[in-house]
Amino acid sequence: MINYFTLLPSLIVVLLMSQTSVLATKTVADDLGESESPIDIMGTVADHDYFTFFGTKLYLPRIFLWKDANGKTQFSTYKSTKKALASGEFEQIDHVIKPVNGSILVDFSLTSHLIYFWFGLGALALYIVFAGSRYKKGIGTSSAPKGALQNLFEVFFEFVRDEIAKPNIEGENYKKYLPYLFTMFMSITFMNVFGLLPWAATATADITVTAILALFTFFITQFSGTKDHWQHVFWYPGVPLGVKFLMIPVELIGLFTKPFALAIRLFANMMSGKIMIIAILGLIFIFNDMYGSVAAYSVSILSVAMTSILYVLKLLVALLQAYIFTLLSAVFIGMAAEEHEHDHEHYDHIHAEQSV
Amino acid sequence: MLYLIAGGGLLSFNTGFAIWIAISLIVFLLIMTKYAMPPIMAALEGRETRIRESLEAAEVALAKAEAISKDNDKALREAEQTAHQIRKEAKEEAERIRTERIAKAKDEAEKIIEQAKFDITQEKQSALIALRQEVARLAIKSASLIIDAELDEEKNKKLVNNYIDDLSKN
Amino acid sequence: MGLLAAGIGAGIVAVGAGIGIGMIGKGATESIARQPDAANEIRGAMILTAAFIEGVALFGAIICIILALG
């Protein structure tokens, strides 16, 4: 344990150093461009057509489904943005790529967020394969689980099963949803933690990713909805007739706000953490620009200290947001899959008494 | 804004990207639910049930062992009790025999002493009688030697006897 | 104007969420103090409720970001 604790500060220092180097290169790049600000906050959280892998930029292929000038739908792939521009069919205006003639229907380009999304899933897949092979060999089934990785796997698995799935989804039903919940928890955790790496992009700091994740929860919730669930939506039990009609839009809106809130919560949390770190570290460069290097050095002490604290906080938030997303998914699914006919009789009974 | 690099802004929903995400997530979830998770879930559940079962079995075995040891204790206590009883009885028997013996020996000794006393008095009596007769005879003899035939023997004997009686009375 | 509105809005959002989460924390710590045995359940409920409030606050924050960027 002591080893890990002594490792942590040095890890943070390494992360910070590489973070500042990333920012520094960005500063140079932006000085060349038209941007006035010495740091590019939004550029670090936005999606890119490249991803940085150990300091080298790897450009990703661009795939477009577009309409040309004649109104014909075309599907074209290019190795990178540069190749797309070189082909002469596309042009770049304000960083947005557009066909010279015509318009883009769907932009299927691979982006850094997509790559890190796949990294998250891939890391989880590797972990699952590792754990599965361990269990197949009998380690963990007939003997005690061995090693930190397998024990950590069990900690996560049993946490999702006993803290998230079991208390919120009634009966043995939870087994049906456990793979989904566990996949969500682990992949979001991996994506969030990958986002802590300074050169990496946070896939969950992208509204599209979180929206799709929330959409999955939404569909699973609706497809596992029992008769009671739909009755609650369209014919709320235990209230007078007029209120029943009033409740329909309320409940319908509620159906959609729940996953919407899920998506926004995860996205905003992950993005705000990233923006905060970049802004605080960016103070160094802003001070350097405005007041010279001495001010920058003195500010850097404060900035680096604050960022170290923020990094620990972000690690916590990374796990907490994965937990909250999974927990709320489980709660929604559990609410929809619940069969509480007993309660209904109770409500109806009370209602009947009141109306008499 | 100028941050629409990959076709999507910070807050805009990017359809192509979303399709990628959805497809990869669907494939991944299918693989997870169909192939990856069930064996792991089954393995962990099996282990848990086995542990629970072995715990229960251990509890049953423990209860059994406790019952057996209780039985053993009971038997031991009973055995101890019988042993104690037997020892007590033996002791009492021994005591009884000892007192009996002592009493018998005392009786015998008393009897012997009585007999001895009796014998002694008997002997003493006979000795006294013999002594008296001897004394009488000697007296008569000496008297007859002295007086010779002047006195008849009957009268003399009577005289001497009276005298001796007087003597013995004194 | 947009930036000003975004700043004021973000401030109000922070105040509201702060009060709400503070009240949750107060309630949770009080009930944990009263009933330490139920600490785990209370903590779970606290996180859930705080997450809901945070969600509302983040809606506001997102609107502020849209105002600021647009």
| Domains of chain B (count) | 1
Total DSSP helices of chain C:
2
Strand residues, percent of chain B:
under 5%
**Would you tell me the overall average pLDDT of chain B?**
84
According to CATH, what is the class of chain C?
A: Mainly Alpha
Give the helix/strand class of chain C: mainly alpha
Q: Care to describe what's here?
A:
The complex is a heterotrimer of chains A (356), B (170) and C (70). In chain A, α7 runs antiparallel to α9 and α7 packs parallel to α10. Chain A has two domains: 248 residues, no CATH class; 84 residues, no CATH class. In chain A, β5 and β6 form a beta hairpin. Chain A has a three-stranded antiparallel beta sheet with strand order 4-3-7. Chain A has a two-stranded antiparallel ribbon with strand order 1-2. In chain A, 36% of the residues are buried. Chain A is mostly helical and 356 residues long. Chain B has 170 residues and is mainly alpha-helical. The N and C termini of chain B lie far apart (170 Å). Chain B is rod-shaped. Chain C has a single domain, classed as F1F0 ATP synthase subunit C (F1FO ATP Synthase, Up-down Bundle). Chain C is elongated and about 50 Å long. Chains in contact: A-B, A-C, B-C. The interface between A and B is large, with 56 and 39 residues.
List the helices and strands and how they pair.
The complex is a heterotrimer of chains A (356), B (170) and C (70).
Chain A lengths: L1 H31 L8 H5 L4 E4 L2 E4 L2 E6 L5 E6 L2 H6 L3 E4 L2 E4 L3 E5 L4 H26 L9 H22 L5 H23 L10 H17 L3 H8 L6 H51 L1 H45 L3 H15 L1
Chain B lengths: L14 H133 L5 H17 L1
Chain C lengths: L1 H33 L4 H31 L1
Helix pairs in contact in C: 1-2
